[in-house]
Design brief:
Largest sheet: none
Radius of gyration: 19 Å
Number of strands: 0
Strand content: under 5%
Order of helices and strands: HHHHH
Number of helices: 5
Length: 113
């Protein structure tokens, strides 16, 4: 008879684990969408070549490429990268607005956890 309560607990753990995974996947998808918004803001601001985009972001070409192609290994931008973009004097206002929204969303998601 002791087996049944243990099985129920195991079932609850599996459900919680799946729920946590789903939550993490949704967060990752939302972050990638926000990163794509950065790319769209760059293009809308007239920065269409990789060289100009990297210069506008204040980043190296390879980092800019990773952001633009949404292939960032973490699925998010590091604090250092966000700081470099926001402190760069050549970053267009539209991109700054998107970055600030992105940073605010990251901050909100960290405080909710």
């Amino acid at each position: 008879m002791k087996e049944k309560p243990q099985q129920a607990v195991v079932g609850a753990r599996v459900r919680n684990n799946l729920s946590e995974r789903l939550h993490a996947l949704r967060d990752l998808t939302a972050r990638k969408t926000k990163i794509q918004d950065i790319t769209e803001a760059l293009i809308s601001s007239g920065y269409t070549s990789l060289d100009r985009q990297a210069k506008a972001l204040g980043l190296s070409r390879s980092t800019a490429w990773t952001i633009i192609r949404s292939t960032h290994k973490l699925g998010r931008l590091s604090t250092k990268t966000i700081e470099r973009i926001t402190t760069n004097p050549e970053t267009p206002p539209l991109v700054l607005m998107v970055i600030q929204e992105y940073a605010a969303e990251i901050y909100r998601s960290k405080t909710e956890d």
